[in-house]
Design brief:
The complex is a heterodimer. Chain A is mostly helical. Chain A contains 16 helices and no strands. Chain A has three domains: 76 residues; 189 residues, no CATH class; 137 residues, no CATH class. The chains are: A mainly alpha, B alpha+beta.
Chain lengths: 447, 111
């Protein structure tokens, strides 16, 4: 079936990707295309015929953007945080910016409040509640911005409130392993719940979930950039105040960390959300640059393990580091998949992705054997069990991806199948995270 | 009859200005009007209209605002400014010179 909307979007995305047109130019051209298609279909042409003719009449997209570049000399980056041209959008964007400022201040204050009761940043209780300083505000931002049904809002609020009550009712005894696990797993679980707020009623659909995966990837990239900027700012403040003999450390410890941290998260989400087209231009490029690099690093690492006979998986801290790396690799593979156009032919990046998955599976296999060894040697502990669960989940995910990818290469299945499987699997992650957060503390007696 | 690309490019600006002189209009409509007025002889690569419009706007001959098309779609309308009107008159004179030179009798081989 010919999907007109999809085709129009991919046409205008192509225009955007040239980087020579600003958003209002794209809207203008897209509406021209739509007018033409409307007229042609009214005259009895089918949608695909009308689309082809209209695109042909508008002419070679590359030549058009070339012409534009002679007129628009402003750079792409200027579009960030500059008011859009049309008045309707202007009003909306004012409201959004106001929300962002308000929510950042609120979130910063909420993150600060526990310190008045003597709960420091490095205390377990503070760490366990980390998700609640930021995620409710992000979820609320989505609920306001997107059309989310009342029923769904009810569910999301209930989950947040119940989770907050339950994990804080759970006691925590030394050495606080289960509470730490909660601190690590809860953000991931609640981020997936926030995803429901992001998608609204589309949260069950494949397309929606794929969008959310893409959104997550772009947030990570944008967030890292903003964090880097903040770090530079911080060093700068230190340096200049030191020169006039004022120690800025108190300010950082008491205010900057809380407010800048939460604000960075909320601003990231806002930027990725509203300036989507701009991130879309460079995020896939970053993924393409780094996937071969990751492949080389992991291959070299595996070889080094084989030749030296040293296993990094006997130490617990390394295990966690490795899980993070696997998650990153998986995320990159997913991101490349999600940013992929279903109609693209198989290209070199598909092969790279496959190679990356294979290496990740081998590394995960080594990691799993390391965990099993530790389990048999030292007995069960919450950390090891959580790590075991995660590695099994990742292994299943990677193996299934590999299997589907190969089937796709052999032209046995459509690319869509991969997306469907992957988006369905998100639920499994959410469930496991919930198990670690809610069941582990009880089973291990809150130790 | 195919009108050469060079001629189409050279005539684009005065034609756009002439249409906007009559009334405010948006891209898609401008193209339709030109097609109609030229009995389908002048056909543009439609996308190329917009860079021309933007250049005219940058040169201060026309200005734009957001409005609604006949079909209710949001689109950018353009209108002629005083400077544009002067430019149009200027163009017309130039074309008249070319036209009258072309139709002068000096080319008649029979005489």
């Amino acid at each position: 079936m010919f999907d007109l909307e999809l085709n129009i979007t991919s046409w205008s995305d192509y225009l955007r990707s040239s980087g020579k047109l600003d958003e209002s130019d794209v809207i203008e051209l897209e509406n021209h295309l739509r007018e033409q298609i409307d007229e042609l279909t009214e005259n009895g042409l089918s949608e695909d015929e009308a689309f082809l003719i209209s695109v042909k009449r508008l002419g070679n997209v590359n030549l058009i953007s070339e012409e534009y570049s002679k007129v628009n000399t402003d750079t792409l980056w200027k579009q960030l945080l500059i008011d859009p041209v049309d008045p309707d959008a202007k009003k909306k964007s004012r409201r959004d910016i106001l929300l962002v400022v308000l929510f950042s201040l609120l979130a910063g204050t909420v993150a600060k409040i526990p310190t008045f009761f003597g709960l420091n940043m490095d205390s377990v209780v503070y760490f366990r509640n980390l998700s609640f300083y930021i995620l409710p505000f992000i979820a609320l931002f989505f609920i306001i911005k997107h059309h989310v049904s009342k029923k769904l809002i009810g569910y999301i609020t209930t989950i947040f409130v119940l989770t907050g009550v339950i994990i804080n009712l759970y006691p925590s005894y030394d050495p606080n392993h289960t509470a730490m696990l909660t601190g690590i797993h809860l953000p991931i679980m609640l981020w997936l719940v926030t995803g429901v707020a992001y998608l609204g009623d589309k949260w069950r659909t494949k397309k929606g979930r794929m969008n959310f995966i893409r959104f997550t990837g772009e947030s990570v990239i944008y967030g890292s950039l903003i964090m880097l900027g903040l770090m530079v700012l911080m060093m700068f403040i230190f340096a200049i105040f030191e020169s006039i003999a004022i120690d800025a450390e108190g300010f950082f410890e008491n205010y900057f960390i809380y407010y800048a941290g939460t604000a960075a998260a909320i601003i990231t989400v806002y930027l990725v959300e509203t300036k989507k087209s701009i991130v879309e231009n460079f995020a896939p490029i970053l993924a393409k640059i780094f996937s071969p690099l990751f492949l080389i690093v992991m291959l070299t690492f595996l070889m080094a393990i084989i030749f030296t006979g040293n296993s990094p998986f006997v130490e617990r801290d390394f295990l966690i580091g490795f899980d993070l790396m696997l998650v990153l690799v998986l995320g990159m593979v997913l991101y490349t998949i999600s940013a992929r156009n279903i109609y693209d032919k198989i290209n070199i990046f598909d092969y790279l992705n496959t190679a990356l998955i294979v290496v990740a599976i081998v590394v995960d296999g080594v990691a799993l054997s390391g965990i099993l060894f530790r389990l048999s040697e030292y007995g069960i502990s919450p950390n090891k069990l959580a790590a075991l669960g995660e590695n099994v989940l990742l292994l299943v995910n990677l193996a299934a991806l590999l299997w589907l990818y190969i089937r796709y290469f052999l032209k046995k299945i459509e690319f869509e199948k991969i997306e469907i499987w992957q988006t369905d699997y998100l639920t499994v992650y959410a469930i496991w995270m919930a198990i670690v957060v809610f069941v582990f503390p009880v089973v291990f007696r809150f130790n | 009859m195919d009108i050469s690309k060079d001629l189409i490019a050279a005539s684009a600006t005065p034609l756009i200005l002439a249409i906007l002189k009559k009334q405010d209009s948006y891209g898609y409509e401008i193209i339709k009007k030109i097609k109609k007025a030229s009995n389908d002889e002048i056909v543009w690569t439609e996308g190329m209209l917009y860079p021309v419009l933007h250049r005219l706007e940058k040169n201060n001959f026309i200005k734009s605002y957001w409005g609604k098309s006949e079909t209710g779609r949001r689109c950018k309308f353009y209108y002629l400014k005083e400077e544009g009107l002067l430019e149009l008159e200027n163009y017309k004179k130039q074309w008249e010179v070319v036209h009258s030179t072309l139709s002068a009798e000096i080319y008649d081989d029979d005489e």
